[in-house]
Design brief:
This protein is an alpha/beta fold and 207 residues long. The protein has 7 helices and 6 strands; from the N terminus they run E-E-H-H-H-E-H-E-H-E-H-E-H. The protein has helices spanning 21-24, 30-44, 103-119, 136-145, 161-167, 183-188, 196-206, and strands at residues 2-7, 13-19, 123-126, 152-156, 173-177, 191-195. The protein has a 6-stranded mixed sheet, sandwiched between helices. Helix 2 crosses helix 3 (103-119). The protein starts with a strand and ends with a helix. The relative contact order is 0.19.
Length: 207
């Protein structure tokens, strides 16, 4: 088991915590992580693109000229794709890009993401994030003190509106709870800041 320092909001070490090898110490599986990142991005796609086919464009009911004898190529409608204002060939239509991933792959990907971040020394454990008021500056100062002032993911043990609303104004900073974290946010962050109480919950879910 790996030991990691627990810091306070001022960046000072207050204790140590032991991280479970079952979650934070496995050999990262890049294939599983990639699959979950693709899944997350695909599930976020709206799929609302739409264009009109020749059957849906208004007009074009009359044959523009007779079939033979004009010297022109034969035409049946002015809404055929080769005409200006004509329909689109194989026009895109609204569709769903969602797909599901096996539960075991999800679990493996999550453990791989955490293990990869710990291996690269990109996990910071904070004793607590307590705030008396909604104040973006407090969160910004804390992230600067613990060395996570770029792209950071703050994992909370439970919903804390003061922290969530105070952090959302900071570019590159996201907050999540143990039940809402995903592989994409972990991989995308430069630093993963985990509140101490959330560590045991993560280990309970994924170990």
């Amino acid at each position: 088991m790996a030991n990691i320092d627990v810091l306070d909001m001022a960046g000072q070490k207050v204790s140590e915590i032991e991280l479970s090898d079952a979650v934070f110490g496995i050999e990262p599986n890049t294939v599983a992580m990639h699959q979950m990142v693709v899944n997350y991005l695909a599930n976020n796609r709206q799929g609302t693109q739409s264009a009109l086919t020749r059957a849906e464009v208004s007009g074009g009911g009359r044959k523009p000229w007779r079939q033979k004898g004009t010297g022109h190529a034969r035409q049946g409608s002015t809404r055929a794709p080769q005409w200006t204002h004509g329909g689109v060939v194989f026009a895109p239509k609204p569709r769903c890009y969602r797909f599901t991933v096996n539960k075991k792959v999800k679990k493996l990907a999550m453990k791989s993401a955490f293990s990869s971040k710990l291996k690269d020394s990109q996990i910071v454990v904070v004793d607590a994030v307590s705030m008396n008021e909604y104040k973006t500056k407090t969160v910004a100062n804390m992230l600067k003190a613990i060395g996570a002032d770029k792209k950071a993911l703050i994992i909370l043990p439970e919903v804390d509106k003061k922290v969530i609303l105070s952090a959302r104004n900071i570019p590159g900073v996201k907050t999540a709870q143990v039940n809402t974290i995903n592989v994409y946010d972990i991989v995308n962050a430069d630093k993963v800041v985990i509140v101490k109480d959330a560590v045991s919950k993560i280990e309970e879910v994924y170990a």
